[in-house]
Amino acid sequence: MVTKDAVKCFVVGLNHRSIDPALESQGVANGIMTFSIPEFGIIFRCRAAGQPVDLEFGALFALLRFVQSKLAKQKIKKLHIFSSNPEFVFSFAGNSRHLKADTERMRLLTEFNHEYQMAVSFIDAIKNQALVSPADYPSMPAGSTVDLKQAGDRSKPSFRPVQKGIKL
Fold this sequence. Notes:
Blueprint: E1 7-15, H1 21-25, E2 31-37, E3 42-48, H2 52-70, E4 78-83, H3 86-90, H4 104-115, E5 117-122
Parallel strand pairs: 1-4, 4-5
Antiparallel strand pairs: 1-2, 2-3
């Protein structure tokens, strides 16, 4: 099992029972696939149609493509992926209908297995960081700082009188 020095990632695929009627009339899907990488302050969500386990696989492959393309400079080699869907987690145990040989999912998984060491584990939904509100998510990676420097000379305050607006 890959846990030491592995980047923790979270995936979720779910269907909402109800959706705004205006969105539904426009054909917007009621499913959501989401992944998060808390170490980097990343959360991704998008709408899609499908069963929760299919959406979860979609979130997994979106996560892996994101790590491959956008986080390439981080040189990530180990991923520990957490899910709250037991059906998704147990599909990696072998003899699963979700990961049959000669399927697109298995091909993609094999491709990514050559690049990353991966472990998939179950986590309670309450602890699944992909379900956290974006407002509760840090906007910067943990431990990073921002150097705030004073711009220009602030010793003399400048005052500009209020200017009249445009007359219509």
